[in-house]
Amino acid sequence: MQEDFYRIGRLPPYVFAEVNKVKASARSAGHDIIDFGMGNPDSAPPTHVTEKLREALKDPKVHRYSLSRGIQGLRKAQAAYYQRRFGVELDPESEVVVTIGSKEGLANMAQAISGPGDIFVVPDPSYPIHTWGFVIAGAEVLPIPNTTGPEFFENLKKSIESAPKKPVALVVNYPCNPTAFSVDLAFYEQVVDICKHYGIYVLSDLAYCELYYNGTPPPSIMQVKGARDVAVEFTTMSATDSKAGLHIGVAVVNKTLIAALTKIKSYLD
């Protein structure tokens, strides 16, 4: 029987899986370790969250199959969050889809919009799914240095213009994992201008928008005029409230990309 598979062959060992192996080996040898692996929370979720979960679990309707794009009440609540937090109005019916965290949303988006030979521009270093999600989908990744200064835009333009075919999309992730870089709206304005000029999409991972340390809440790319024409954004509610094992998130705005993600999710989850 076949033992070598095309997509698996394109993937290196997953970094967190390798860290877990080292961790397990050290613990089995009796060493006391400090875990810098998956970033699991060391505090409990807020009490009102666990109490609401306990209440919901008693409702038999909760244990039925849900809608792959999310129930209407949840999509309305997520649209309301964007209005409160960013001043961005969303249509819950056409501009919001529920995800199993930003990682699943990005992976399924890659499946939805990638074709043979397609190219995606991804800053390097990046969170693994930003690169390998597109590799798994059969596309090619064009890396550019992960910076936030003028050189970022210079490298972005050069990469787009020198690519063998026009890239489908650019991935951005701020606050960034793993660099911790943050950006302001002026940065996003330039991203939107460049991507609109070249006719490519922007996939923004805003998973860490409620985890910040300088007193200034990180912005959303959707606050930029014209961003909804080219951008889709992923967020998660799991990292914020120490709910790493209870993943849920949202993808919002660009109707074309949201429709594509909704369709493929209807087959997968």
Describe this structure in words.
The longest helix has 15 residues, at 72-86. The protein is globular and about 55 Å long. Helix content is 40%, strand content 14%. The protein has 9 helices and 7 strands. Helix 5 (101-113) crosses helix 9. The chain has a 7-stranded mixed sheet with strand order 1-7-6-5-4-2-3, with helices on both faces. It has helices at residues 6-9, 15-28, 47-57, 72-86, 101-113, 128-136, 150-162, 185-198, 255-268; strands at 96-99, 119-124, 140-145, 169-173, 201-205, 231-236, 249-253. Strand 4, helix 8 (185-198) and strand 5 (201-205) form a beta-alpha-beta unit. By secondary structure, it is α/β, with parallel strands linked by helices.
Which characteristics define this entry?
7-stranded mixed β-sheet; alpha/beta; single chain; 269 residues; 9 helices; globular; 7 strands
Largest sheet: 7 strands, mixed
The overall pLDDT, averaged over residues, is: 92
Secondary-structure-derived class: alpha/beta
Give the helix proportion (percent range).
Answer: 25-40%
Number of strands: 7
- Unreliable stretches, pLDDT < 50, 5 or more residues? none
Q: How much is the radius of gyration in Å?
A: 19 Å
